[in-house]
């Protein structure tokens, strides 16, 4: 009789999670035979492995698979299904929020910031040197667009990710009417549809990141709140706009006094269950999160100058 044969309870547990669990001790014995075969040692099915260790190892494998199954069911995320028209409509609304819907606003460098803001989502592009605390997104956009077959402007043809070619806002403003910037601006006009698709793709990737960052006890609620919003067109827009506006909330560099302001933090502040009230609750939670950010921010950043515009933006999610 095989000393390492799983017990009836072990075999039942394996079936209960829909997995066929190979005998861990048989695998160990096989590996040992392969290693010692050259020495002429004939190793039995479980020779040299204590029965208790085999049983414990088998149960550990089963428990691990149960754990993985539970985590997988929590983090399984369906693709966000939007028509091309709806995707473009969301992209244009983000463009309106970020750039007032203007072509000139597609290439910007805001006062008080140390990076260029480009495209309909004002995607961040840092110059060479020390990076700020905020996530850089413009190189990811360029990679996304390039893979879709769009022709890149001369400024972006260098292989691999490259830093922003202007080292300061003053340099950027001086270059506004150069052929390189005009070509870059036209590229951003021509790829508005692809930029909108990039925004949706970013949102699809946000939920697994947020669940990984959230405390275990908060994960189910975060997923529930996300799904409440994504089931309606206005809620989907709110998610897309906010994650582009203030990030996923998973980077520890995007914290003031230990508190973040991204989409994760907004969803954690929500606890409703009705789809009908989801967008209104999201707008209220986002407003409170942004007010807290300004309160916690370093005084030298003078972030209060932006707060009224931020509040108008999140109020617009619910029509307020």
The global form is globular
Oligomer: single chain
Unreliable runs: 1-49, 52-75
Largest β sheet strand count, sense and barrel closure? 3 strands, antiparallel
Overview in brief:
By secondary structure, the chain is mainly alpha-helical. It is built from 13 helices and three strands; from the N terminus they run ααααβββααααααααα.
Describe this structure in words.
The protein folds into 3 domains: 8-75, no CATH class; 99-204, no CATH class; 214-320. With 320 residues, it is an all-alpha fold. It contains 13 helices and 3 strands, in the order ααααβββααααααααα. The N and C termini lie far apart (74 Å). The longest helix has 25 residues, at 51-75. Residues 1-49 and 52-75 have low confidence and may be disordered. The chain is 55% helix and 2% strand.
Keywords:
globular, mainly alpha, 320 residues, 3 strands, three-stranded antiparallel sheet, 13 helices, 3 domains, disordered N terminus, single chain
Topology:
Layout: H1 8-16, H2 24-36, H3 51-75, H4 84-99, E1 107-108, E2 116-118, E3 123-125, H5 138-147, H6 169-174, H7 179-190, H8 192-213, H9 219-230, H10 233-246, H11 263-268, H12 278-296, H13 304-315
């Amino acid at each position: 009789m095989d000393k390492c044969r799983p017990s009836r309870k072990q075999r039942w547990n394996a079936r209960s999670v829909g997995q066929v669990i190979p005998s861990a001790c048989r695998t160990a014995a096989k590996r040992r035979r392969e290693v010692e075969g050259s020495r002429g040692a004939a190793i039995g099915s479980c020779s040299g492995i204590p029965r208790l260790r085999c049983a414990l190892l088998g149960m550990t494998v089963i428990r691990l698979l149960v754990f993985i199954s539970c985590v997988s069911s929590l983090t399984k995320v369906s693709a966000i299904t939007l028509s091309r028209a709806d995707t473009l409509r969301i992209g244009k609304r983000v463009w309106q929020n970020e750039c007032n819907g203007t072509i000139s606003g597609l290439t910007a460098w805001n006062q008080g910031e140390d990076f260029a803001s480009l495209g309909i989502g004002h995607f961040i592009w840092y110059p060479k040197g020390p990076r700020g605390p905020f996530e850089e997104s413009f190189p990811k956009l360029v990679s996304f667009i390039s893979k879709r077959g769009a022709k890149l402007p001369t400024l972006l043809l260098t292989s691999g990710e490259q830093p922003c070619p202007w080292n300061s806002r003053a340099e950027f403003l001086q270059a506004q009417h150069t052929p390189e910037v005009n070509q870059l601006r036209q590229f951003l006009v021509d790829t508005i549809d692809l930029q909108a698709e990039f925004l949706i793709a970013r949102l699809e990737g946000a939920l697994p990141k947020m669940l990984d960052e959230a405390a275990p006890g908060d994960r189910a609620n975060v997923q529930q709140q996300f799904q409440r919003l994504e089931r309606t067109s206005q809620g989907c827009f709110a998610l897309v706009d906010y994650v582009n506006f203030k990030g996923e909330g998973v980077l520890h560099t995007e914290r003031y006094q230990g508190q973040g302001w991204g989409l994760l933090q907004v969803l954690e502040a929500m606890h409703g269950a009705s789809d009908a009230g989801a967008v209104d609750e999201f707008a209220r939670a986002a407003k409170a999160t942004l007010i807290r950010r300004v309160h916690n921010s370093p005084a030298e950043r003078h972030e209060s100058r932006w707060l009224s515009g931020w509040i108008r933006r999140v109020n617009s999610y619910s029509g307020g």
